[in-house]
Amino acid sequence: MVRLTSLLSRIPTIKFRKGGVAGAAPSAAGQAQAGAPSPASHSSKGLSTSTISDIELPKRYQRRPLSQEEIDHINGGGIV
């Protein structure tokens, strides 16, 4: 039972941008400012919802071309 309570009271060290548990050990400063909205929560300058097509990717991130042997293996259905 001691291990269970120690696991439940553990505070994760990784801070994620979104999501997570709402009541996961807020700091005293965070509780004092809970009524005031933070400017970072309304700003979405850093987040982009646009996607990049495969053609626009830099050469090092593009897929390498498939060889004819790989194409035949895929078209053959894998393990026969």
TrEMBL record:
Polar residues biased stretches: 42-53
Record region (Disordered): 20-80
Any one cellular-component term (Gene Ontology): mitochondrion
Pfam families: Kgd4-YMR31 (PF10937)
Swiss-Prot/TrEMBL keywords: Mitochondrion
Family recorded in the similarity comment: Belongs to the alpha-ketoglutarate dehydrogenase component 4 family.
Protein name as it appears in the record: (diamondback moth) hypothetical protein
Gene source species: Plutella xylostella
